[in-house]
Amino acid sequence: MGAAVAIGLALAGCGGGREEGSPGFVSGFYGGAAADEPRSALVARDILSAGGSAADGAVALAFTLSVTYPSSAGLGGGGRCLAYDPRQGRVDSLDFWPRGGQATGGVAPRAAIPGLVRGMSALHARHGKLPWQQILAPAENLARFGDQVSRALAIELSEAGPQVQGQAAVRELFGGASGAAVEGSLVRQIDLAGVLGQVRARGAGEFYVGPLARRIADGIAAAGGDVTLEDLRSYAPRWVEPQTISYGFHVMSFAAGQSDITARTLVRLLTVEKKEEDTRDEQRAHLFVEAVARARLQGENANFGGFNPAEASELASLSGGRTPPPMPSPEASQRRRPGTTSFLVVDREGRAVACVLSMNGPFGAVRIAQGTGVFLAQAETVTGEDGAAVLIHNANNRGFIYASAASGGPAAPAALVYVVQRAIPLALPFEQAIREPRLHHVGAPPLVLHEQNLSAGTRDTLDRRKHRLQPVQALGRVNAMYCARGLPNRGARLCEVSTDPRGAGLAVSADR
Fold it and tell me: Which of 11, 113, 167, 459 has the most CB atoms around its CB within 10 Å?
């Protein structure tokens, strides 16, 4: 499931005896999708093959994740998305992160205000094509009639074991008294299906205003959260300006989260002098980890000056000897499951959506709003490194080139850029770009984390450069799609889509 899928594309057609809105309406290339959980990617595939837009597929995928991957996505959580429309040559950035409500008595709330429902509604309103009711139906059906636990979710349940088993409602949902749901177990979520059914039939507003909203607020209170009905009513997603960089003939756009800022800064550091691709692999690794440290130190508004790879050894002083800000421990920096996930959807017209969704911790607050089946996101107090997304399009013909989103904790921004740099300027085979061992710089104390299959030559070079090295199992998870000749394109085309082999997700597209 983690291998890259190469797609030799014929001209996309429609029809085949099916009506628009029915899976199979699009014959030939319908686009592609990649996600950390397989069932959600398959739902997005069906929406695309029915003639839906990338936004339609993304909305269906996100709601499906609330059923099949509640460790990292849910109606009680939120996220950030980038959406590209080649007809206008415009990238939109949408922020619907789960935020804390109005705490009482100076005590921070234990549950965040849910943002996903209104966020997905905003995305659909601006970029959707198929009816809202149709694209929510798959998630509702999976909750109502049950779905088998995927390997991706089984891993999350296993690693969060004590947390899950400590909450009766969560334990009952996943395996009864033992809390031991395993891969292939059938899980039905009737309460969640009821909520999804109301949102499907009456629209996203029902979740925030009216009888359902009151039921949600009461359920949160019963679960120990402090989110009020007024908090729900006042929550609104925000359309913000994406961060952009000129990238050769392309435009690279990032979302507006802290991790996205770090990723954008890192790209700028690596491309100002445009010499990074001219160095040997071992030297390139040194440049990369030093750039990661500088990106964390300098931030979005820094004066980047003339970063020159030939003078990279001088970067060890990190901007005149200043110490980077404190960063998480090596253990935290290599976490695979900080309660965040990523996905992307691209349609045959070159419209694209890349998203990061989060519960602000594995299974969020590890509580379910009573009587609703809605997992509650944890109310975060400090914005952490959680995930990042990027879209790339051609500045001249507006063609879609590349979409990627990453999760996995503090290493996510570096993982995102590591793959982009290898797939595009270095022109490595796409599957190799995804699989190649990654690096991450932990600022204080200065430490370079590296995946265990990093070459001996690269390790020796980093050691000679006085980097402290520590092997880890995995650094970030990246979903990506690359169309080197752009989309849409009436000539011969080649696109590749991949999910990260470090996880148990799925990448899908048409091979005809």
Answer: 113
Structure tokens at 64: 């499906």
SS3 344: strand
Q: What is the pLDDT of residues 133-178, one digit of tens each?
A: 999 999 999 999 999 999 999 999 888 877 776 777 778 888 754 5
Tens digits of residue pLDDT in 24-41: 788 788 999 999 999 999
The DSSP code sequence of 100-155 is: E---STTPPPSSEEP-HHHHHHHHHHHH--S-HHHHHHHHHHHHHH-EEPPHHHHH
Contacts of 226 (CB under 8 A, 6+ apart): 101, 102, 103, 104, 107, 109, 110, 111, 220
pTM recorded for the entire structure = 0.88
Comparing CA positions, the residue from 289, 281, 358 lying closest to residue 96 is 358
**Nearest of 449, 396, 376, 471 to residue 73 by alpha carbon:** 376
Across 322-407, the runs of DSSP E, i.e. the strands, are 340-347, 352-358, 368-369, 374-375, 387-394, 400-407
Cα 332 to Cα 447: distance, rounded to the nearest angstrom: 13
CA 289 to chain centroid, in Å, comes to 23
Residue type, 415: A
Question: Are 493 and 478 a contacting pair, CB within 8 Å?
Answer: no
The end-to-end CA distance of the chain, in Å, is 19
Query: DSSP string of 457-481?
Result: HHHHHHHHTT--EEEES---EEEEE
Report helix, strand or coil for 368. Answer: strand
Span 241-278, pLDDT tens digits:
999 999 888 999 999 888 898 899 899 888 754 444 44
Beta-strand pair 469-472/447-451? parallel
- Which residues are paired to 252 by β-bridges? 245, 392
CA proximity to 509, closest of 21, 11, 8, 124: 8
